[in-house]
Amino acid sequence: MLVRQLFKELSLGELSNLSMAADGSGVIVEEKQSKIMLYAQDGLTKLYGLFLLSEKSITVETRDDVTIYPLELRYAVTQETPGVTPHIIDTEEDPFLGDLIKVLSVVDSVGDYVALNDGEAEVSVFTPSPALLRVPEPSGTYVVSYQANHTSLVDETSMISLPSVLEPALKSFIAGKVYGHMNGQENAILAQGYMAEFETTVLAVTDRDLVNSSTSQTNSRFDRNGWV
Predict the structure, then answer these.
(1) Cys-Cys link to 56, which of 80, 131, 148, 223 (CB 3.0-4.6 A)?
(2) What is the distance between the alpha carbons of residues 143 and 183, in angstroms, rounded to a whole number?
(3) What would you report as the CA-atom Rg of the chain, rounded to the nearest whole angstrom?
(4) Per-residue tens of pLDDT for the chain, all 228 residues
């Protein structure tokens, strides 16, 4: 759904009694829209971390004398960051967005999967932190598949990519944030209630396995390198 649809549903539902929602008229007043989008972004990040909703891949070019490779935006070729030697090979048509949440798998230059965080394996790569790849014996290029975050919300025309079963969780999360930043015991109670609804929805979706392992896959880099 579009952000404007999210605004409408929040105004008619969870935030209907607030002035920012024009008292339930179906809109979020302009001066509060950026705040709601910020809360929505936070909620999407949480949901994209809890569920594998987007899987992407990047190509990392290694050097014999380097074993540590940060998987951050400034190390992408397209960023042209001064003083930084890039090792993430991307293009303007298919740029790395710095949206990595967790590394899922690594494939070497001949197309073989490399053990991940396995100290007992003959050859393994490691992730000391989510966005850091350590390659003890670097050799050529590696394709790193990762769990990706949601794209940034810019305005009311931005698209929110979320399974319908998780949309109530997002709205509860936003409402919890809104009421949580308002004064008064009543608002604090409402905030707690909405956050409890968020957790309940997430638990129900998890228990019933209502979300596929990946609803959006971007593996173009595998295709370009002939590894699928």
Answers:
(1) 148
(2) 49
(3) 21
(4) 999 999 999 999 999 999 999 888 899 999 999 999 999 999 999 999 999 999 999 999 999 999 999 999 999 999 999 999 999 999 999 999 999 999 999 999 999 999 999 999 999 999 999 999 999 999 899 999 999 999 999 999 999 999 999 999 999 999 999 999 999 999 999 999 999 999 999 999 999 989 865 444 554 444 444 443
**Whole-number Cα distances in Å, 78 to 75, 91, 98, 191:** 9, 6, 12, 42
Q: How far apart (Å, rounded) are the C-alpha atoms in residues 119 and 6?
A: 46
CA dist 219 and 228 (Å) reads: 9
Residue indicated by tokens 């009421």 = 179
What is the three-class DSSP state of 49? helix
Task: Give the C-alpha distances (Å, rounded to integers) separating 220 from 58, 124, 127, 151, 161.
Answer: 9, 24, 23, 18, 19
Q: How far apart are CA 148 and CA 152, in angstroms?
A: 12
Phi/psi class of residue 184: alpha, beta or left (left: φ > 0; alpha: ψ in -120 to 50)? Answer: left
User: What dihedral angle (degrees, nearest 10) is formed by the CA atoms of 162, 163, 169, 172?
Assistant: 60
For residues 160 and 91, is the Cβ–Cβ distance under 8 A?
Answer: no
* Distance, CA of 141 to chain centre: 25
Where do the structural domains in the chain lie, given as residue ranges?
3-51+152-207, 55-148
Alpha carbon dihedral 208, 216, 151, 36, in 10-degree steps, equals -30
